Every structure is written in C-alpha cells, then in structure tokens.
From TrEMBL:
Residues 47-173 form the Copper amine oxidase-like N-terminal domain. It comes from the Bacteria. This is Copper amine oxidase N-terminal domain-containing protein. InterPro entries: Cu_amine_oxidase-like_N, Mao_N_sf.
Length: 393
C-alpha cells in the first residue's frame, strides 16, 4: 500500500508502487507511459469522511487527470451545493462561492465581501509545477451521472474547496479519501493540548460548518492528526482544528477549568487612563478579540463589545451586551463570568452591584458606579443592551 496526500496546497503527488518481475520500483510523480494504462484500469473508490460514496459516482481517469464528483463531495462536506443544468455552485466559507460548469477549465469564484468590481475572479481547476513555476492545466470539468466532475486537485487546492484529500493505492484498487481519514491511516497523538488562539472546530478537515469554538488557553484532548489538522475532543464535542491553533502540553492558564476545558477569565490588572492599555487588558486577561473590543462564543460572533469613545466624548466607553446565559447557546454560561470581570475593570468595588442588575434582568436606566454616570437602554434593531459608561470622577 502507498499513499499520497494534499491538504490545501493544491498539489497532489502520486506515489505508485509497481512490481516489475522480481523488484519493486517506487514512482513519484508522473508514471512512465507503459504503466499509465494498467494503473488507470485499477478501480477507484471514493470515501468522504470515511464513508464510501455510491459506486455510480466513482472517480475516473481521463487524459491523465483523476476526476471526482464535485456535487456529492461538497454535499457530504457541508458545502451546500446548488445544482443547475451541467453546473454546480458550492459554498466555500458562507460568503464565498465557487461555480463550476461542464466544459470549462476554470471555476468562477464569487466573494461577496469584496467591492463589486472585484467580487468575481477565476481559478484553474488544475495546476502543475514546471521547472519550479506553477502552470495552469487545461483540464475541463465533465458532466456525468448528474454530477459535475472536477480534477481531484481542485478539491484540495487552497484556491478551490480546500478539503483534505489523501489517495491510497493498493493492489486491487485505489481509494481517494476526502475529509476525515480512518483511524488506521491517521497519526495517533493521544495527548493533552491547549488553544493558542481563538479557533473554530469543524466536523471534518476543511468543512465550512462548525461544531464549536476554542478560545486561547482552552484545554483539549488531541486524539490524532492528519496533514495540517488535529482531531480533538472538547467537552462533549469532537472535531477538527488546524494544528497552528493548538500546542501540545498542559494549558498555562490558572483558575477554575470547566468541563469543556475553558478556564474562567480572571482580571488581574486595574483600569488605566490609557484606553489602549485597557484594550490589552481585555484581550490578554479576559479573552476579547479584535484588539480587545469583542468577546465571542460559539454560535454568536460577538456577545460583548466595548468601544472606546475617545477623549473628547461625553462618556468613556460604550458597552453592548448581545446576550446573557441561555440554554440555546452552549457556551453562553461564560457571558456572566466574563461580564463580572469586565465590570471590575470599570466599576471596581461597585462591580457586583452592576452585575446583579444584569443577572436579575432589572437594569436601571441611569445609575452611578465607581464615580461614573452610567445610562442603559435597549437597542431594538440589534436586540442588545447598551451602556454608556461616563468618565471617572
């Protein structure tokens, strides 16, 4: 058995083990012409997240290119394909889409986040390295059995779907794995690790859907590895996260650790007249992101937002709360904990009183805390509570 893999760099280098008479020759890259025919006649099986795809959608080789069914792979990886006549559109990240059409050698990429004139561009379905340079290959999409077939390189390319792909060649068949590998093909880790930054956890490597999110220093169990991904368990959830978001070893965080590996945030610093110092405190000690502005949990990209108003404004900061503890959001138990530490920064000895207002759902429209005048109002358009926190007197 031999393997080749590609996990987002767009290059798959086949490694073939061929027995000739009494010796075994390992070919890396393109096979000699005399052997290509025998290899192309070997059955190719497709497995997505270790589940075999219906045989009518099996991959095939045409003109030296291995083709795989885009519609079926995207559906099983959470890409929510939209099929039209000999054409399919696949979600890449929720805001970016790839459209592939029968007979075309390039995919149309639409990025809704860019300016209107820059939103659409085209990427090749297949490339190859020639003398160290990347060259487009004229490998056209093919329509067959109600599927748009594309070169397997497009599935793994960073410019394409960016899914994990690994090919295993055996005596009787070739298996192309997309997404999660079977246990016996993955690298065993079985160690404790912790998150080095905020990161989403997906059900399969490369999937655009997510099962949970990690925050810095959150402790996890790392079961195994494949390519640039770790398979982890966090609380009662398991999934994949990029290796660069984790470090093997015990978390350096101290304090109470909850069942999902999260360490309760604890404020160590005091309020500063310099707003940049306060932002760093929120970022480093309470886990705020975007430069100390936003606190997020899985399922809600921001639950607390702190905006400095500048030295000439009538109040120091505006604090928005977009939610509190709720059974609908698993990680929302963290919001009251973080809020109490946040209130300590601005309200010091009066922090518990302000926290009780929120926890009881009875917030005065105007009150004084730690020498600051505070107003509270409900913002209907965002469903949030907005506090104006006055300058300290």
């Amino acid at each position: 058995m031999c393997r080749s893999n590609s996990s987002g760099n767009g290059m798959t280098y086949p490694v073939e083990v061929v027995k000739e008479n009494t010796k075994t020759i390992i070919y890396v890259g393109k096979l000699p012409g005399s052997l290509q025919q025998s290899i192309s006649n070997t059955p190719i099986v497709l497995k997505v997240n270790n589940k075999q795809v219906n045989s009518k959608y099996n991959p095939f080789i045409s003109n030296g290119t291995t083709y795989v069914p885009l519609n079926e792979i995207a559906k099983q990886m959470g890409g929510r394909p939209i099929s039209r006549s000999k054409e399919v559109t696949v979600e890449l990240d929720g805001l970016t889409f790839a459209t592939v059409t029968d007979g075309e050698s390039k995919a149309e990429i639409y990025d809704s986040q860019l300016m209107s004139r820059e939103r659409t561009h085209f990427v090749p379905l297949k490339t190859e390295k020639v003398n160290g340079n990347t060259k487009d290959v004229d490998a056209k999409a093919l329509y067959k059995n109600g599927q748009v077939y594309v070169p397997v390189e497009f599935i793994s390319s960073e410019n394409g779907l960016n899914y994990y792909v690994e090919t295993v060649n055996e005596k009787s068949k070739t298996t192309i794995y997309v997404g999660e590998l079977p246990v016996e093909l993955a690298e065993t880790v079985k160690k404790t690790g912790y998150a080095t930054k905020w990161a989403l956890v997906s059900p399969a490597p490369g999937s655009i859907t997510d099962v949970t999110a990690l925050v810095k220093n959150q402790q996890v169990y790392i079961a195994r590895a494949q390519g640039n991904w770790y398979k982890i368990k966090v609380g009662n959830q398991s999934g994949f996260v990029k290796k660069d978001a984790l470090k093997i070893g015990k978390s350096p965080a101290t304090g109470k650790m909850y069942d999902d590996g999260w360490f309760a945030s604890t404020l160590k610093s005091k309020w500063s007249k310099d707003p940049q110092v306060n932002k760093k405190t929120l970022e480093n000690e309470l886990g705020f992101d975007k430069g100390g502005i936003t606190y997020s949990i899985f399922g809600k990209s921001k639950v607390i937002q702190v905006i400095d108003q500048g030295p000439t404004a009538s109040y120091e900061v505006g604090i928005s709360f977009y939610g509190w503890q709720s059974s609908a959001l698993q990680q929302s138990y963290r919001i009251p904990i973080v809020a109490k530490e946040l209130f300590k920064l601005y309200f010091e000895k009066d922090a518990n009183r302000v926290w009780n207002y929120f926890n009881k759902g009875d917030i005065p429209e105007r009150f004084t805390a730690n020498g600051r005048t505070v107003t509270a109002r409900f913002v209907e358009s965002t469903g949030s509570i907005y506090l104006t926190v006055g300058h300290k007197k």
